[in-house]
């Protein structure tokens, strides 16, 4: 096995992990899980699902890379970039479709798969360039900062359609709005 094969393993593994992380807060509702996993059906909350799934599968990917002794540079920066870039990339493609045609699960899942494939390829490219030690340390801090932002926006969501759960008519985790 080589790093190039990890593109496909990463894509499929992360895609499957999204199904699990989608429901983790529902199954185990607590303040910690609220930071990492979706607390409602808003578009924004699903970005936590993608971000966390990329990072969680990154742990599995790291174990595989270590066990198979695959040469890889910049793993942490690659992992952060994959997780972070997945959000604007998904939204850039998804939002125009959603606002024009509404929610279609099959379209959303196909789009998610292709976004995960694209970021897996990006991760492969980053892991194949020369080692960048300082950026790997910065990546860890940025991962933490992203979760601070996710936590903040879960408990204090913006009043924007992207943060609104149309199924339960609420923003974030606590605030219910019946208009």
Give your account of this protein's structure.
This protein has a three-stranded antiparallel beta sheet with strand order 1-2-3, with no helix packed on it. It is 73% helix and 3% strand. The chain is mainly alpha-helical and 179 residues long. It starts with a helix and ends with a strand. Helix 1 (3-27) packs across helix 5 and helix 3 (43-67) runs antiparallel to helix 4. The chain has one domain (3-176). The chain is globular and about 50 Å long. Strand 2 and strand 3 (175-176) form a beta hairpin.
What percentage of residues falls in helices of 4 or more residues? over 70%
What fraction of residues sit in β-strands?
under 5%
- Helix tally equals 6
Separation of the first and last Cα atoms: 55 Å
Query: How many beta-strand runs?
Result: 3
Q: Trace the largest sheet across and list its strands.
A: 1-2-3
Average pLDDT rating: 90
Oligomer kind? single chain
Shape: globular
The main pleated sheet reads as: 3 strands, antiparallel
Q: What's the domain count?
A: 1
**What structural category characterises the helix and strand content?**
mainly alpha
Q: What is the radius of gyration computed over CA atoms, rounded to a whole number of angstroms?
A: 17 Å
Observed structural traits:
6 helices; 3 strands; about 180 residues; three-stranded antiparallel beta sheet
Question: What is the secondary structure topology, with strand pairs?
Answer:
Layout: H1 3-27, H2 31-36, H3 43-67, H4 75-101, H5 105-128, H6 133-155, E1 164-165, E2 170-171, E3 175-176
Helix pairs in contact: 1-3, 1-5, 3-4, 4-5, 4-6
